[in-house]
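Section 3.1 - Work completed
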Amino acid sequence: MILFPAIDLKNGQCVRLEQGDMARATVFNLDPAAQAQSFAAQGFQYLHVVDLDGAFAGKPMNAQAVEAMLKVVKMPVQLGGGIRDLKTIEAWLSKGIARVIIGTAAVRDPALVKDAAKAFPGRVAVGLDARDGKVAVEGWAESSQVTALDIAQRFEDAGVAAIIFTDIARDGLLKGINWDATIALAEAISIPVIASGGLASIEDVKTLLSPRAKKLEGAIAGRALYDGRLDPTEALALIGAAKAA
């Protein structure tokens, strides 16, 4: 069970959005590499990074900030945002990204996901961000007509490492993760699912460790870590104790 601290990049800074709205961004750290070091020092073992500008532009926009993070932390980093072709995937993996996350392209171009997962086993994840059950694309600016389950099922035998499922309505609002929708998705597919969007407190971590969430690979924590609602020491101790048991 992995708790992924999140670093969202906008204009080279570490920010958090509310419900994916770029106009509702709070800057938490001007130096993303320092933020990554801080998470490493706290004991986290896997970092989740999103290039927000890249998600809107359709190509990497915060490469400098990502590369700076890769230089200062040894833990694996998964990266999403603006990854829409094989060339970009290859470039990031060769620079040291452990796992790329394909979002919009997973809806628009499923063949890309399948080709990438085949070429780079275990290093390609799919990001499914849902608003009212329907998957949103282009940095959440547009909603599609397909559900997260529809898309996840397309990749059942493709070798995708994980599905990162975000409930946009809760993202950045500290309302708690949408456990029912996330667990239902995890139980309907064989690909590991990572919960995202709204993790608010230690209670969410306890739910993550409960028997009903046993099929989940982990959860992503963002704003709750930045504004002190989630104590990283307490959260990681709980996860460590659960693993030991």
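Second construct:
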Amino acid sequence: MLERLLPGYNCRECGRKSCRDFAEHLSSAEDLSRCPYMSQERFRDRLEELRGILERGVSRERIVGVMDGLEADFSLGPLDGEISCTEDIHPLEHCSLRAGDLIRYRPLGCPITHFAEVLEFDHGVARVRIVGPLFEGRKEYIDLGICMVLAFEGRVVRGRVPEVGKTVRFLPEHCMMQKVHSGVVVHSEGSRVRIEAIDLKVW
């Protein structure tokens, strides 16, 4: 909200690397004087709106991983009609899957076994939704062993919606360990985002 009201020139004259970074660190109306453009007549209405917001106070919710204590940029929840974020996974061993198959696997770098339903399978990559272990004993599942997690897709439910191309820290809501993940945003539309190049080793 604050970023949208700033000029968006990313000139760094304020001492920050971008207008978004400047917006994240705004704490009072006096801070606005560090932007060389906000004093121009063409930005007068925006300046007044920003001052009003800052005088009322800005709530910045912290999203912190339980296991690692790292702060995330946002929390990723399921898309409409889904029960979890969807994941693209690549089994390390050759297999053949179909939509509707129930699978058990462990993501490379994660100590937790995952249970999921296959949504689609193409060229060795399965798009899945996490369903948890509750179906165990009621239905057959395929044990895939270790898999690489290639991508997450979901919607931002807490925190700010990221820009395409940005490396982000995010917390999948369905993660049993509540561990912060990282990756690169390749698609962002409204609150819906797709993150690839997933890494559990967040620095």
